[in-house]
Write a structure and sequence with these properties.
Elements lengths: L5 E4 L5 E4 L10 E6 L6 E9 L2 E11 L4 E5 L13 E6 L5 E6 L1
Antiparallel strand pairs: 1-8, 2-7, 3-6, 3-8, 4-5, 4-7
Length: 102
């Protein structure tokens, strides 16, 4: 598979942003923009490797209309086959735009 670098998350169920096997290369940063006009959202972002979860952020509140920029250049996210997957979950079904930079 190929990397999809832009996502619009509108549900509060866990979503895979980058699957193991996407060969995304070195993910340098992740942009999380809460594009809702009035509702804040808590965001969880984690790596799954061999069934184990490793959180990058957990329960971080992003106010309405605010963008959170994460520098992940020092985190080795290995998205080769059978390695890391990058997942996200929102506390509410509001719109969050995600941009992944490699």
């Amino acid at each position: 598979m190929a990397l999809t670098s832009r996502h619009k998350i509108t549900t509060n169920t866990p979503q895979t942003l980058v699957a193991a096997g996407d060969n995304a290369g070195n993910i340098r940063s992740i942009n999380l923009a809460n594009i809702h006009d009035t509702t804040a959202v808590d965001i969880n972002l984690w790596i799954v490797n061999c069934g184990k979860l490793y959180y990058i952020i957990k329960n971080v509140t992003v106010p309405a209309g605010v963008t959170l920029q994460l520098d992940t250049s020092d985190i080795n996210i290995n998205t080769n086959t059978g390695q890391d997957a990058l997942r996200i979950k929102l506390s509410a079904a509001v719109a969050v735009d995600v941009i992944i930079n490699t």
